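The material for today's practical consists of a large collection of protein records. There is nothing in a record beyond a sequence line and a structure line. As an example, a complete record with its sequence and its structure tokens follows:
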Amino acid sequence: MIAAVTSDIISSVLAAVTYLCVPVEYPLWERVSMKITDLKCAVLGRNPVIRIKTDEGIEGIGQAEYAKENMKWLFLHYRDAIIGMDPTDVERVMQRIRRLGAFKPWGAGVSSIEMALWDIAGKAAGVPVYKLLGGKVRDRVRVYNGNVQRTMTSFNPEDFAEEARWMKSQPENFSIVKQAISFHTMMPREVPDYFYGEIETGPRSPRTGVMTERGMKHTIACVEAMKDVLGDEVGLALDCGPGFYPNDALKFAKALEHLNVMWLEDMITGDYTPYVLADLYREVTPYTTTPIHTGEQIYLRQNFMDLIEKRAVNIVGPDFADVGGIAELKWITEYADLHGISMAPHGRFDGLFGLAAQVQVAATLPKNYIAFEYTTGDPDWWYDIVEGLPDPIVKDSHIEVWDAPGLGVTFDVEAAKRHLRKEDSDFFD
């Protein structure tokens, strides 16, 4: 009897041991603490791209806006600070490197690293990034067109009407288009007596000043011409500056109230201005029903506090590739929502990996989300070196949210290698 009982016990123990010895697959991030082993940077076309490597063989890709190819030094500046850290502890890594620089161009460096870390975290967990951000609230995300455009060389009402007609005809069937106008174009140089100021030439030369009556009437006529084409079928947003003084900004906004434009962007500050000036926007926003928008150049949530808490604008538009990353964008969106402010993120130059990141975070944003700015591959061969994007990418102004792990897009390495510069030839090693 005793022998039988003992035998049963031994059999049970052996069965348990056998069961426990059966390998069970857990996500890597539950099984092991990964470590960052390297950060590499290459310039593909005009986009700086980073590759963060780990000791588990999982890697993440981050991408900065194009036309920032001179930023390679900045990414490498952060390299030593993150080596040895666990890439799935995204916020811990961010806290370490945010303090190593402020505003532009530092925001682009930090944002691209954060993007790559989320890519790694999603791959390690076997889930898309949106799952790590709280899960999606929408299955497809709306985008607006601020990038599928032609270069304008003349700036008369008929020219803007033709451009609006062309954008309306595009196969993406955009429900919102954004058009540069006024101080965000060469209009002050090409339209006689547009403003009371001197014309400055050269790259990034400022175009700002007090508008003449003639300049104001001309700009309003151009907007009216676009709305005649777009009607109530396609929303019209206007990228206006910066360049307006508050009194002209208010005059312009009130003159457009009957046209129901989507928003007026960066009228007072914005492009290439490392400051916010919320109080100046407060001289405009409360006194017009035309929505006022800004934020694409701002780095970190702290620099949005004045805009949001003072309700200085109706819509904020940070660019995840400059603001500190996708989690930073999500935090700002939620804080704006608490204050009744809408969200329409900038993203024109963020590239195809940037597009993937925008899709992931936009899927998780609250109801104040309107649309993000659709970005394209530049040059066109970018579409040949990136795998995982839907085809076509945009249908009826929306992108379906995909479920592949991480950002859900990867390089076709052999194809991408053909476009590496000589000095970046070891990028994929």
